[in-house]
Amino acid sequence: MRKIFIPIIAAVALTSCNQGSKLPAIAPDIITEKTPNDTDDPAIWINPDDASKSIVFGTDKETNGGVYAFDLDGKIIEEKSIKNIQRPNNVDLEYGFQLNDSVAVDVIAFTEREKQQIRLFSVPDMKPLDGGGFPVFEDETDVEQRLAMGISLYKSPKDSSLYAIVGRKIGPSGSYLYQYKLGSDSTGVSSTLVRKFGSFTGGKEIEAIAVDNEMGYVYYSDEGECVKKYYAEPSMGNEELACFGGELFLEDIEGIAIARYANGQGYIIVSDQQRGQFNIFSRKDNSFVKAVNLSTLETDGCDVVTVSLNDTFPNGLFAAMNDEKNFYFYDLKKALDLKP
């Protein structure tokens, strides 16, 4: 398949040389309690038994960092939080990881940058499944190229295999991202490298990664160029499928969230970090839809779910990092006014 470069239209009015969004600001429904250091990336777990008891996990990136669990009122759930993690950067979540023939668990995975590894915990009991961590980028001799940052989980529709796609602080074009298969047998959970891929312009870095399981695509932010699109299934090859949206962003292209609806409908929501807004693209063809100002500051990571959770979030939840050691929560319709 040839590369598809999406033309930038209908967005000129949104572009300004002045930092800061010119769009009307939309206030959050909930502002979470603060973490000790520096928030970065959220992941939303939907409780299958009671959606009102769902959890938003958010990273706090520092040497004494952690992955903090928040209830839907923005309060920290201490017993579900994972602390004393050495600079956790990004976090992602997946449902139904098969531990053995009879047991499947939901999991979160996150990068631990200063240990050059990724971590894997079950949800909601928050038990480690990784024996202390899975090393990444082991074949790199330069320590700087082993500093894990971005992560996204992909559950293959073909055979339910679970993969972790991991990025780092710096890396070479063509193999910036590593994809690991997470398996489980009688000896425990293992991580196996299955491919290296991902072009990189070299200007800034690649941090934000998001996978669309149903459509079979992985998206990542080449921060100084565009949002890039590849196949998530390793057997489909390493061809870059699209590079879109770059001209819409003031400086850094950051966090990516995928709002999924039935029949492939939905949206890709990307943080325009320095402008303080989010650019929204079609999930089907990656064309630009609109931009919104959610009043966050310097947003890195974001996440979204499209199902009703409670009276505050009857249309779904959009969660975004805010540069005041917290996260902002929004009812999806109120914030983005997205339709299936």
From TrEMBL:
<dbReference type="InterPro" id="IPR011042">
    <property type="entry name" value="6-blade_b-propeller_TolB-like"/>
</dbReference>
<protein>
    <submittedName>
        <fullName>Phytase</fullName>
    </submittedName>
</protein>
<feature type="domain" description="BPP">
    <location>
        <begin position="16"/>
        <end position="340"/>
    </location>
</feature>
<dbReference type="Pfam" id="PF02333">
    <property type="entry name" value="Phytase"/>
</dbReference>
<dbReference type="InterPro" id="IPR003431">
    <property type="entry name" value="B-propeller_Phytase"/>
</dbReference>
